[in-house]
Amino acid sequence: MDVTHALAAGMGGIRTAGDLVARMQMTRGMRLKQAKEYVAGKLGCTVRDLSDSYAMEQIRGEKGLGRILDHSNLHPGEPNAMTAKFRIAELLGISINSVERFKEMAGI
Amino acid sequence: METKIPTRMGDGFMVEMTRSELRADIENATSEAARKANVPVLTAGEQEHLLDIYASRTAFSAVDIGDQVVLSCDGGGSKMTGNDLQDLLESEQRLGQDILELWHIEYSYKAIKTILPFQQQLMQNAQLMLTAPIQYGAQPNLAFYSKPDGPAENWFELLPRGDIAGARAALDEAMDYATKDFIHVGEGMLEAGADGMDFDTTGGAGDADFLSTLRAVKHLRAKYPEAGVEVGMAGEFVIGVHGELEWEGRRLAGLWPREQLEVCQDAGVTIFGPAVNIRTGKSCCWNTAYALTLIKPCMDVARIPVHPNVGEGVVGVPVNGYPPEDAASRAARACVDILRCDGL
């Protein structure tokens, strides 16, 4: 069922900009249209690009926002996971809880 | 003679219906929902589009390119590997989920309280390994606070005896315990780095279940203003087990989805998930029309994202351990196309 919904209607998570739009819904309570326009503005792309895995794979790579890792598509030396979230927080202008906890624990 | 089209009943069983029969199901369902909840029926255009989605022989249905929505996945991760971190990684890297959820198979806040440090450690570790937002989810399950499982008297035993005052006193006691647990777990998980909290299947034990959750939501959102708070409902109608409980002057018993949303957004919820339970004896087409009619009024008053529940047995998805993809995809598409919802 998870796969069905992802294919039928889902934005695509970190394959696209689904996680970024989701963050604006979660932390700011933005409606979908507003959240998509906000993220597209920050990325400098169109709203349609946000759920286009071809476009977003390149944009995420350029901006270091974390990408899907696959045997034929590896990116050693590029931000992912926690390091990518530092960049996502800065790009979107939001505070990400785990990033702030990481800074505290690492003494940054 | 009209062509028969394969379609599903609410329990997932495949049947064949004509386009005329499906149209009649939509008309009947939207009329019944409108009458019960005192809301408008779906427009003629909406009914026609819903009919096109269901009167199709395709194995799968999907929204238009660019219309995709955010998926908040309660119970995200399949528990296939027996390892929470692996499940979350699969959900992010393979399933492409937008909002992930860490959860425990004992999916109640009362139970989670006893294993909170283990869940906190998992959350901290998961946050180091994943990029997508991870919320923590469980159910309020107020009934677990009544005897024999909990400390309060059992209101479901007191009510049939006519002891209404005793039942209400028991509910009041249970709500106090419950809200404290929700806050204890919520604070613990947010301190461990969670991006948000999910109160899944809220109102399952009626208006007291709902109120105990709203109190916790208000506390958590005030203390953690950057945290996401999702409330997913248990059903389309809040049952008045107590009957006199209010949220800021509004009685909770008897609320339909639009009023549930208004209460939730006033309390500080950032994502609202309306639920409409499936009728197994009706077609999925009937169930989807019924659900959309009840949920559609939410879209006009929402200040926060609305993610209709499309899990097993709600909003047009058959109540079946393996909801058929033809039915589940039609339900998802219908929600997006007709409601213009913010997520699922």
The appropriate CATH architecture of the largest domain in chain B is Alpha-Beta Barrel
Q: Which value, in Å, is the CA radius of gyration of chain A?
A: 14 Å
Number of strands of chain A: 0
Shape label of chain A: globular
Q: Which percent bin holds the helix content of chain B?
A: 40-55%
Contiguous low-pLDDT stretches of chain A (5 residues minimum) are none
Q: What does the largest sheet of chain A look like?
A: none
Structural class of chain B: alpha/beta
Oligomer classification: heterodimer
The gross shape of chain B turns out to be globular
What string gives the helices and strands of chain B in order?
Answer: EEHHHEHHEHHEHEEEHEHH
What's the end-to-end separation of chain B, in Å? 38 Å
* Count of individual beta strands of chain B: 9
CATH topological fold name of the largest domain in chain B = TIM Barrel
Strand arrangement, major sheet of chain B:
3-4-5-6-9
Low-confidence stretches of chain B: none
Class computed from helices, strands and strand pairing of chain A: mainly alpha
Strand content of chain A: under 5%
Question: How many structural domains does the protein architecture of chain A include?
Answer: 1
